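Annotated sample (chain length 280).
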Amino acid sequence: MKEWFRHKWMKIAAAALSLSLTAAALTVVLNGTAGPLGRWGETVSRPFLRLFSSVTGAVRQGEDYLRGISQLRQEKQALEQELAQARQGALEGALALEENDRLRSLLGFQQRRRDLTLTPAWVVARTPDNWQGEVTLDQGENQGLRPGQCVVDQRGALVGLIKEAGPSWSKVTLLCDGGFRLTGQGIRSGELGELTGDLTLLARQEGKLSGLPLDTQVQLGEEVVTYSVSGSGPSGLSVGKVSALEEDPGGLSMSAILTPSADLSRLTQVFVVTAFQEVR
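Output written by the structure step:
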């Protein structure tokens, strides 16, 4: 666009210059001529000289305009770079704050639960479909991870169980998955049930405490925690709160639907309970 504009104006300026030079030459010749002929030469050449002056001015304005556009583009690029740097700085700051909050929460949890040995791990993959609730960790057997171990977030909220482990990786079954099994207990009611999930709950990222009696004393809003049976895992890990009560198929028992304490959709760093001392 810039080159086309300059080329166009150069052609116009060249034509105007040619006409003006002709007019100027005619003026020089006729200026020395007295009488009507000389005056006629001035009259004829004057419009061409004005045209040349106008075209020259327009060309200068066009060049100034193009220089202005080029400068604006440079300023725009500089501003875009500054904005990108500012965004990167804000992102790094947000990540630092998030990391600080996570470490502070973890420190508080470790101080409350000195009976637990925790191994940190990062979530490196999620199941790419809606049929399984699984995540993959970057730690495995070499770091002491074994199937059946509980996985928690930085606040100590239950995330799931180690399903299988390789030398440097492991898969976790989330508590909303139908394959999850662990014993849970309502804190207020004291009632025990089986913690599990299903396809419907998986889509909502929820779990349930099933196998409760029809006259269950579990109430809405009650917190549910893990309950150790034969060393299956530590007791007292927060699972979630009761959001609904529903009758199980067959009508012989009830289930409490749980909103997990952990945010299962935004897992990044987790902690595997590789050892614990059971305290009743």
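Annotation: The mean pLDDT is 80.
Annotation: DSSP finds three helices and twelve strands in the chain.
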